[in-house]
Amino acid sequence: PLPLREVVLFNIFYEIFTVCTSLVAEAPDGNLIHARNLDFGLFMGWDLKNRSWVITEKLKPLVVNIDFRRSNRTVFKSTNFAGYVGMLTGMRPHVFTLTMNERFSLNGGYIGILEWILGKRDGMWMSFLTRSVLENATSYTEAKKLLSDTKLLAPAYFILGGNQTGEACIITRSRTHNIYPLEIDLKQGRWYVLETNYDHWKKPLFLDDRRTPAMKCMNRITQANISLKTVYDVLSTKPVLNKLTTYTTLMDVSQGKLESFIRDCPNPCMPW
Ligand SMILES: *[C@@H]1O[C@H](CO)[C@@H](O)[C@H](O)[C@H]1NC(C)=O
Ligand SMILES: *[C@@H]1O[C@H](CO)[C@@H](O)[C@H](O)[C@H]1NC(C)=O
Ligand SMILES: *[C@@H]1O[C@H](CO)[C@@H](O)[C@H](O)[C@H]1NC(C)=O
Ligand SMILES: *[C@@H]1O[C@H](CO)[C@@H](O)[C@H](O)[C@H]1NC(C)=O
Ligand SMILES: *[C@@H]1O[C@H](CO)[C@@H](O)[C@H](O)[C@H]1NC(C)=O
């Protein structure tokens, strides 16, 4: 296991060096499927011999699914790293599903966290907000409002799914608000929303385009054939799956099901 000093550092870096792919898709019967890859460990040491990221490999054994209970009843479920208190992936069974992706931004991002460490900035840690929403929000609408309006330390993307048709959105956060909401809209043919680490109204960085291949896969599958299985296949397509990918989580809100898989990307495979 990681020593304490590394765990603390890791809590901070975790907010900074996480790249990810998250999506919510609506099946023809209105059922919502929410899935994500968590890619972690960028720039934190490349192992030449193993062709792998040192931290990514260290984290894989720490992936756990947690069932949070109150009065002996499940309040929410989540996929976590043992020892880490924030939440990046979780579900309130039968109510909503939630994932968070890093939104890179120099001012407000790294600088925001530095300023917070120096005591010069207020706002909530992003993955504490997700925890608080999972613990305390009781509907999609309430979760959406909290995720859109709570003041944050740094920018982030929240990907939220509800429990009925049309309830799925990407919340692109500045420190203060939801900049440009995007929701599922069946009338316009948008039966899924998908987020990596770039604003959905802009092109992804050419060196790191996981969005285009993931969307190609989704479009090829079509809404008629969407299921946990086909979504898993999308998240297993390179470079959506890459050397940073630590786990894949699949969630079916109406069945209250959350499952996760520790991932390996066989060579040849992109470092990110
Ligand atoms: C690298 O590979 C060696 C041999 O296969 C293994 O013992 C070691 O645990 C690996 N290190 C990491 C960080 O995966
Ligand atoms: C909690 O629930 C489980 C089954 O869901 C049951 O086996 C256990 O006895 C319960 N514990 C308490 C303290 O009620
Ligand atoms: C959830 O709400 C309760 C009661 O208001 C509060 O004590 C608790 O701290 C909240 N949880 C989080 C994670 O904010
Ligand atoms: C969907 O969520 C709402 C709360 O927003 C809840 O009242 C309702 O029972 C849920 N529907 C199902 C089918 O679980
Ligand atoms: C769904 O998948 C099956 C088997 O892969 C295929 O035969 C069928 O054409 C697909 N349906 C649609 C609508 O794409």
UniProtKB/TrEMBL annotation:
* Pathways per UniProt: Sphingolipid metabolism; Lipid metabolism; sphingolipid metabolism
Subcellular localization is given as: Lysosome; Secreted
In the record, which residues are listed under signal peptide?
none
Its predominant location is other
Sorted alphabetically, which InterPro entries does this protein's record hold?
Answer: CBAH/NAAA_C
Q: Give TM segment ranges.
A: none
Q: Which GO terms describe its molecular function?
A: N-acylsphingosine amidohydrolase activity
User: What is a single Pfam family found in this protein's UniProt entry?
Assistant: CBAH
This entry's Enzyme Commission designation comes to 3.5.1.23
- Identify the GO cellular component terms for this protein: extracellular region; lysosome; membrane
Keyword field: Disulfide bond, Glycoprotein, Hydrolase, Lipid metabolism, Lysosome, Secreted, Signal, Sphingolipid metabolism
Q: Report which reactions are catalysed by this protein.
A: an N-acylsphing-4-enine + H2O = sphing-4-enine + a fatty acid
Residue stretches in coiled coil? none
Q: Which residues form the Choloylglycine hydrolase/NAAA C-terminal domain?
A: 20-257
Q: Which GO terms describe its biological process?
A: sphingolipid metabolic process
Task: Say which family it is in.
Answer: Belongs to the acid ceramidase family.
Q: What is this protein called?
A: Acid ceramidase
From what organism does this protein derive?
Pygocentrus nattereri
